[in-house]
Design brief:
This protein has 336 residues and is of the alpha/beta class. It folds into two domains: 217 residues, Rossmann fold, CATH 3.40.50.300; 92 residues, no CATH class. Helix content is 34%, strand content 14%. The chain has a seven-stranded parallel β-sheet with strand order 3-4-2-5-6-1-7, with helices on one face. Strands 8-9 form a two-stranded antiparallel sheet. The protein has a two-stranded parallel sheet with strand order 10-11. α1 crosses α3 and α2 runs parallel beside α3. The N terminus and C terminus are likely disordered.
Length: 336
């Protein structure tokens, strides 16, 4: 074995107990152990300074990888970690957990504008171990010139959270993520990078690599043991709705019904009504339950479904609803 390989092996063997101790502090659990692939990803970032794309299920512990790696890299004298994430509001628990192992994380976002001058000084004076920003910050020229570019050459690790957002093939394309490529050119050539996602097909992965450079893909099992998938194929929208109305009371537990179309917000006067078929598949429905005072927003995914914007609207008015606002998300059915 060559000398460099021996050194790498010794470093890896030394790093693993250190990383495990940090993981246990992060999770506040003395019995915790690495999940499959976690140590390998940390080792790739810390020991070999690799560029890694983690494709792992939600809840696997992707943030544990980059926070443990952050602490280890900082202890070796490297610069702070830059974390770019569209989900900063959901990372408070992870940031609080990282503090248990001594990672000082700060976030610059639209909710703490009055604190920006002090946070900027903290970052520039190397008093923070991790800086969290949203991708939209990258579009702010003042932020880029005053903070990001002065820090670029000192960054020790770049984290791209929800990396599928880089790709316009991803389900949540964020154009500002594309600005990362220009920032990367100012950063050290051997900068370790970790992109994280729970949802990326091969096309998205290829697109992410075009933006961030060649990444070693660490892909895990995306299925969860507690998640069971089942498909029921019915040919028409009316039959699907009728099946749901007939069987929904038989289904155990709680659930969410999704439909194609843009998300809509409604005020407190709007409510979901129970709509049950009088006769199967014939478009005639009846309303059960009391009608609250106030307007009802009646939403259909297409105009030409032949019942929602006509029959159900009439039934709602007959049941005592004072106002019905029909709303269609599309002008025609695809026939699916």
């Amino acid at each position: 074995m060559h000398g460099s390989q021996q050194m790498l092996t010794r470093e890896t063997m030394t790093n693993r107990p250190e990383a495990l101790a940090l993981l246990r502090r992060l999770l506040d659990d003395d019995q915790a152990d690495f999940r499959d692939g976690q140590w390998e990803a940390i080792d790739a970032l810390v020991s070999r300074r690799e560029r890694v794309l983690l494709v792992q299920r939600t809840g696997w512990g992707k943030s544990a990888v980059y926070f443990v790696a952050t602490r280890m890299l900082r202890d070796r004298g490297l610069g702070a970690t830059l974390i770019v994430s569209p989900l900063l509001a959901l990372m408070r628990n992870q940031v609080a957990a990282a503090q248990r192992m001594g990672v000082r994380a700060i976030s610059i976002n639209s909710t703490n504008r009055s604190e920006w001058p002090q946070l900027r000084r903290t970052a520039l004076s190397d008093e923070a171990d991790a800086l969290l920003i949203s991708p939209e910050r990258l579009a702010n020229e003042g932020f880029t010139e005053e903070l990001l570019l002065p820090l670029a050459e000192r960054i020790g690790l770049l984290v791209v959270d929800e990396a599928h957002c880089i790709s316009d093939w991803g389900h949540d394309f964020r154009p500002d993520y594309r600005r990362l490529a220009s920032v990367l050119r100012r950063m050290p050539a051997n900068l370790p990078i970790v992109g994280t996602t729970a949802t990326a097909n091969d096309r998205v992965i290829d697109d992410v690599q075009r933006q961030l450079g060649q990444l070693n893909v660490h892909r895990g099992r995306l299925m969860r043991d507690s998640l069971h998938l089942q498909t029921l194929r019915l040919p028409t929208q009316a039959e699907r709705l009728a099946w749901l109305a007939e069987h929904i009371d038989e289904l155990p537990g709680t659930g969410i019904t999704y439909t194609l179309g843009a998300g809509l917000s409604t005020d407190s006067t709007l409510r979901t009504l129970s709509i049950w078929p009088k006769r199967r598949f014939d478009g005639a429905f009846s309303i059960e339950g009391p009608i609250l005072e106030g307007a009802v927003l009646l939403v259909d995914d297409v105009v030409d479904s032949n019942w929602t914007l006509t029959v159900v609207a009439a039934l709602l008015r007959d049941a005592g609803c004072p106002t019905v606002w029909p709303f269609a998300l599309a002008t025609a059915s695809t026939g699916d």
